[in-house]
Amino acid sequence: MQEKYNPQKIELDAQHYWDRTSAFKAAEIPGKRKYYCLSMFPYPSGKLHMGHVRNYTIGDVLSRYYRMQGCNVLQPMGWDAFGLPAENAAIKHKVPAAKWTLQNIEHMRQQFKSLGFAYDWSREFATCDPDYYRWEQWFFTRMFKKGLVYRKAAWVNWDPVDQTVLANEQVIDGRGWRSDAPVERRELEQWFIKITDYAEELLDFLDKLPGWPEKIKTQQRNWIGRSEGVRITFPFSYEASSAASGEAPDDGPGGDGVTVYTTRPDTLMGATYLAVAPQHALAIRAAEGNPELKDFLEECHKVRVAEADMAKMEKKGMATGFKARHPLSGEDIPIWVANFVLMEYGAGAVMSVPAHDQRDWEFAKKYQLPITQVITPCADSDDVCELDKQAFVAHGMLVNSGDFDGLDFDAAFDAIAEALEKKDLGVKQVNYRLRDWGVSRQRYWGCPIPIIHCDKCGAVAVPEEDLPVVLPTDVEFEGVASPIKKMPQWYETACPECGGEAVRETDTFDTFMESSWYYARFACSNYSGGMLDERAKYWNSVDHYVGGEEHAILHLLYARFFHKVMRDEGMVESDEPFERLLMLGMVLQGGVKMSKSSGAAGDPQHLIELYGADAVRMAMMFAAPPEQSFEWSDRGVESANRWLRRLWNLVMDQLAGEDAPAIDKDNLSDAQRDIRRATHETIAKAYDDYERRLTFNTIIAAVMSLMNKVLKFEDDSPQGRAVTREALTATVLIMSPITPHIAHLLWEKLKGESLEDASWLQVDESALEKSIVKIVVQVNGKLRAILEVTPDTTSEVMEQQARALENVRKFVDGKTVRKVIHVPDKLVNFVVG
């Protein structure tokens, strides 16, 4: 009796075999081409959703394919385990964050295994393991000693509910991205890492990443934001600033003036006011005697939007009463506080040229400030300057600018910069939009920052022999504040330098720290003698990195930075961490991104139990190309299950009959040749789609087409069985990266060997040759006939045969054939007049 398709038994048997044989355990093999495939490791939220299935199936498909190409494949898995969700769950359910996290990891690990992912589980780790974050702390102390780390007071986005600092990107419409609470501005002592020291290399090396999507590289370029401009000082006008009782505010060393940076020095003569951030020292000084201004500053501290949204925000401001002197004209101009100026960019002040900057124009119109045109359109341009309607922001020729009149942008840039330098009030400067990385977080569930504070010695790095600084896991929460801040038994310690009383840093690291180097640790996760060993140099950069597009900026940028510092420390040899990047579109449900909150509909487990993991994987890969977002439907899994059942039955029918002989290529019928041609065309297409295009849906479509041909092929002759066996064998192997469980068993039955040792199929070029080629015949681009010829038919003979066709003669006879367009094996087009 024929064995029935039972996905649950088949898949469990295959998974047991892989575990028993350690089929996917990687080892360093010198001389063999390595392939390191990594999907961005998950946060252990508790359950997988269909977005996870897509991400990790794609990585697994690539890994299994390159294994068949003879590569030494590493595909590891671990857990990005620190973060707010675990801490919030601990507070809500009164369960330790560590326990909640480890329970979730255990459940999700079983879900991963049920999907048949070919992971080297021997390299697994969670970032909350002290054995992992010990080396993160060590690396931080190395950067601290190298001068790449510093601490300073900084204005930050503060989430009053989550009680922590938020990055600008985590503030959405003035609210925290997790808590939805209104975000406040606070000045806190924060630890920073000097990523800006690597800004130029981070930018330049994007050109050395051909395997990255251009869209992602553009986003990184924009984030790094290199610009060429001029740093200008507007001297403080003591006489004109009566509101400050004749005293200059302390604006840096000497309080000499207000410093700005501009990429448009050509507009300097049109600067009619300065605008400073609400946190600027000058604004704070002005508010001391101005209750109304003080209230305005408080309002600015409460309202916060992401930088990208600031252009759409209502522009608000107040005059400080202070004035500055124009560095070239000597005229006094007012200094305003404006809500659109960011303290963390530049020096927290901007020169405002309302005639030639739309934001400044809107502000000037609202507060009736002067608008002075100093740029006019070039004579040969179509630009129009209508300052009553909007600012004129294009480059042009200078007017109303004294000695600089008539200069174009480039000439004015140089001339004005030179004039400022002569007065010691300006200098050309390359600036980057990129800011240093603030890594301090005020929450509990994170890696402790390995710094000790001593009144005598200052901030001191924890000595290497005292690492790791272990985060206590047996803690009790009172509200949402970090419990370690109330644990003197943990934070009270001795200074490593003087031995005196000292305290530990109670902030923890931004969780981007853990995800910035995990890929390298997978190469040597069991190494206890250092951060990395020589195996990291063997596996080198990740060959293919797979993940969601939402990580296109921060995670990738921080990982690139870490890699370069590790390179400079001699731990890795390459310049970049990820050679190829595959950024995935979203899996949507009802138009909303699939996530852990999607409920049962987003959980793959019930689909695995109903239809099998292979059907789930196949449906996901068939739904859309990787870069596209799409609406998920469970119906696709049922369809995939039916197709796999059909494939199973075809193979079982083939195996139940007489043995198939070897193919006699010289003695095949036309129908047999057609099947064989379809088989090798499918192999060739699958190779191209796996290797180059990464369109797994078209691989599945091609295999389905081949199977439809096999189903219609009713030839039980020895050679008929032989070409059918070849088609089925090719189908099983081509689909094996996508549906590995059924392929594992069918390959063993068809070939008598382990699929995990199989090599990719070779295309038989002779099988692709066609005995008859169908040629489209057109007249003036319109289809008039189909001509059947042999592949070796010359273009001259083909033209004559096409002319002889009755439906072609009707449109050609009696007319002048001006040109004949011939596309080999496809088309003949007569152009007649």
Architecture overview:
This protein has 833 residues and is an alpha+beta fold. It contains 24 helices and 32 strands. The strands form ten sheets. Strands 2-1-24-25 form a four-stranded parallel beta sheet, covered by helices on one side. A four-stranded antiparallel beta sheet has the order 4-3-7-17. A four-stranded mixed beta sheet has the order 11-12-10-13. Strand 3 and strand 4 (164-166) form a beta hairpin. Helix 18 packs antiparallel against helix 21 (718-735) and helix 20 (696-712) runs antiparallel to helix 21. The protein is globular. Residues 250-254 have low confidence and may be disordered.
Task: Write a concise keyword list for the protein shown above.
833 residues, 32 strands
Produce a short descriptive summary.
With 833 residues, this protein is an alpha+beta fold. The protein starts with 6 loop residues before the first helix and ends with a strand.
The total count of strands amounts to 32
Largest sheet: 4 strands, parallel
Evaluate the radius of gyration.
Answer: 34 Å
N-end to C-end Cα span = 69 Å
Main structural class: alpha+beta
Strand order, main sheet: write it out. Answer: 2-1-24-25
pLDDT averaged over residues: 93
Instruction: Give the DSSP E fraction (strand runs of 2 or more residues).
Output: 15-25%
Give the fraction of residues assigned to helices. Answer: 25-40%
The residue ranges in which pLDDT falls below 50 over 5 or more consecutive positions are 250-254
Described by the principal axes of the CA atoms, the overall outline is globular
